[in-house]
Amino acid sequence: MNNPLIIALDFADKREVFHFINQFSEEKLFLKVGMELFYQEGPVIVDDLKERGHQVFLDLKLHDIPNTVKKAMKGIARLGADLVNVHAAGGKAMMTAALEGLDSGTGPGNSRPYCIAVTQLTSTSEQQMKSEQLIAVSLRESVIHYAVLTKDAGLNGVVCSPHEAKMIHDRLGSDFYTVTPGIRLETDDIQDQKRVATPGFARQAGVSAIVVGRSITKAADPLQRYFEVKKEWEETRQ
Ligand code: C5P
């Protein structure tokens, strides 16, 4: 997990993915495969990316009964993804089951994938959380509650907003792994994201890894933009 820059491969199919990746020639990347691409191309997409030497974050956000998640994670571990995730709302027993599944599917000599949990989706507003989930506390309290539960279950970290990362690290330590989407450069259009932050802001907040999608994938020169994001991250003091 030493690469702090994860590129979200939000493409419709494999052809678009490889057209994009080919621009990076020898650069070894950390790539996020989400539901759109995974359900379109199937598990072989993970093999294809791993064979080329890239790290893979398989962002499938599992949320089901513990036994089902355990069995699913066993299969996911066999794919060789480096980072996987679940919804913390599935509960502590489900998260523990996820780890058991990953352990049983990890081959001898391989490392178990890192497993993190989504706390509250960044697309959920506080008002929506209160009226639809009937959670009476603030959004930040709900996020920290889920982060504590995630750590208690033994997972490696959480997906959260860059604006929540400092609070999480203050409470759970700097080693707790935080992954934050919603990253934009100062010059970018924010599109449909609600609360965005720059790579520099995320670094200062102690974020472990940022997920960057359209800022890189839709740039006129994705390679140049990738190095620009990387430079801002590296030149910001934690
Ligand atoms: O293009 P953009 O940088 O906004 O892409 C962000 C990526 O992170 C997308 O793949 C999106 O699905 C994902 N994501 C997110 N917010 C979350 C969890 C995942 O934006 N809470």
TrEMBL record:
Magnesium in keyword set: no
Keyword Nucleus: no
Pathway recorded for this protein: Pyrimidine metabolism; UMP biosynthesis via de novo pathway; UMP from orotate: step 2/2
Entry keyword set: Decarboxylase, Lyase, Pyrimidine biosynthesis
Residues involved in substrate binding: 10, 32, 59-68, 122, 184, 193, 213-214
One GO CC annotation: cytosol
GO biological process, one term: 'de novo' pyrimidine nucleobase biosynthetic process
UniProt catalytic activity: orotidine 5'-phosphate + H(+) = UMP + CO2
Active-site feature positions: 59 (for ompdecase activity), 61 (proton donor), 61 (for ompdecase activity), 64 (for ompdecase activity)
Residues of the Orotidine 5'-phosphate decarboxylase domain: 4-229
Pfam families: OMPdecase (PF00215)
InterPro entries found in the cross-reference section: Aldolase_TIM, OMPdecase, OMPdecase_AS, OMPdecase_bac, OMPdeCOase_dom, RibuloseP-bd_barrel
SMART domains: OMPdecase (SM00934)
Gene Ontology molecular function, alphabetical: orotidine-5'-phosphate decarboxylase activity
Record EC number: 4.1.1.23
Enzyme class: lyase
Similarity remark: Belongs to the OMP decarboxylase family. Type 1 subfamily.
Assembly and binders: Homodimer.
Role played: Catalyzes the decarboxylation of orotidine 5'-monophosphate (OMP) to uridine 5'-monophosphate (UMP).
Protein name per the record: Orotidine 5'-phosphate decarboxylase
Organism: Bacillus canaveralius
Name of the encoding gene: pyrF
